[in-house]
Amino acid sequence: VRHRATRQRFAMKKINKQNLLLRNQVQQAFVERDILTFAENPFVVSMFCSFQTRRHLCMVMEYVEGGDCATLLKHIGALPLELARLYFAETVLALEYLHNYGIVHR
Predict the structure, then answer these.
(1) The pLDDT of residue 68
(2) Structurally, how many domains does the chain consist of?
(3) What is the CATH number of the domain that holds 71?
C-alpha cells in the first residue's frame, strides 16, 4: 500500500477475523500486533498502525524491499555461503533482541 500524500510504501497484513475465530487465534493476533508495535530494532519489522474493518484485522508495517527469506529461497535456491551467514547473523540479532524482552519466536 502507499501513503496518498507522500507515496511512501508500506506492507499491510490483512487477517480474516472469521478465520482467527475458527482457529482460536484471536489472542495470538493481538500479541503479534503488540510485539510489532513495541519492537524498535533494525532486524525486526516495525508496525505503524493497526485497524479493523467488519471482516478483517489490518496491520500496516514497514515495507521491506525484496520480501521475506522464504520467497527469496524459492526464487533463487540455495544462498551463497556469505549471504547465508549474513542472514543468519541478522536473524540471531533479531531473536536476541526479542528474547531480552521475554518474547519467544516460534
Answers:
(1) 85
(2) 1
(3) 3.30.200.20
